[in-house]
From TrEMBL:
The lineage of its organism: Bacteria, Bacillati, Bacillota, Bacilli, Bacillales. NAD(+) binds at residues 126, 188, 211. It is an enzyme of class 1 (oxidoreductase). Its cofactor is Zn(2+). GO terms for molecular function: histidinol dehydrogenase activity. The gene is hisD. It comes from Pallidibacillus pasinlerensis. InterPro entries: Ald_DH/histidinol_DH (IPR016161), Histidinol_DH_monofunct (IPR022695), Hstdl_DH (IPR012131). This is Histidinol dehydrogenase.
Amino acid sequence: MDITNVSSIEESLINDKLNRTEADFDQIDARVKEIINDVKNFGDEALKKFTEKFDGAQLTTLKVSQAEIDAAYESIDEEFINVLQEAKQNIIDFHQAQLEKSWLNYKNDGIILGQKVTPLDRIGVYVPGGKAAYPSTVLMTVLPAVVAGVNEIALVSPPDKDGNVHPYVLAAAKIAGVQEIYRVGGAQAIAALAYGTETIRPVDKIVGPGNIYVARAKKYVFGTVDIDMIAGPSEVCIIADEKQNPVFIAADLLSQAEHDEMAASILVTNSTELATAVQKEVENQLAKLERKDIARQSIDQYGQIFVVDTLDEAFNVANIIAPEHLELLVADPFANLSKVKHAGAIFLGPYAPEPLGDYFAGPNHTLPTSGTARFSSPLGTYDFLKRSSVIFYNQEELEKVKNQVVHFANEEGLGAHANSIQVRFNCEV
């Protein structure tokens, strides 16, 4: 894990150190488009073909039965079920605070302006398989939609070689209230959700993380459906002063590194002594990890320690990075919170580590990655709501402003717009 001294804020240096951008998506995009077009043209047949090719499973049916969901739930030990239930309630409580309400503003007796808030009709949730099972993703993507009032939720997840979706995913789906589940993953699952097949009806929005093929497929279908974000590799940035515990910091950096080989774990500190101690502690802890091979590649390629002169400079570095997760391990994190401009989720103090947010605290763990926290937000209840403007004028109020509207329309050369106003008052065009 490299240590880099940053005497002044050098944005190019920071970005070069953390560059995880794929050089060329052309080959991936070409393959994704082929898969999507096959699903559009051949429906269920294409889904089964690609599932056999990529997942090694020969499917007779795409939909997971209620009996399978119930059996998966019964197979999970009661203690973990209780943990999922408690996490569910925390997530619901947090996301209920995000609910928006319709409103009307009565300017006077003749004008009413407002906004009507309506939940989406039907959404699709993608839950990854592969390197690990992700029941937390089920809860974090489904429950905000439930809180928002979405009536139909279709969940897709890649099966194992026997054609089974992971029991943890099915149990979490049951707890979250999802009954429509399909054993299909990859770009083909995104295509099915966007365009529909004989078995899977199309949705209005697709949410949930996935591999690069899933991410590129989501980008391709955007416009036909809405999407949450184009998620990239995960990252954590920790700002720490000289008084912090290097054992805690190393553990938090490695909790991110074990996600995948392209995950980035970053420490920014004003203490060379702490930087050196953390560097050594990362090596000590890494050797003991079950997923040490993945974490090793992540740390070697994208692990980084920046040493700066002051904590103010540390916040400047973090704002350049715009991390998915930002931990503030400083003497008074609340006093420094205003210095954070760009971050997906902010964890304050030594006893609010990033995994707390991943699983249990309640705020969503579907967060903007790869610097997109500069302009985007965590997944939330608001992502499953749409807003319609409401406008009412009576005759008297419209007559007061008719000349202004006609003038505006004529200046834009749109005579029919002007006429729409004038005909109501028997005016000449």
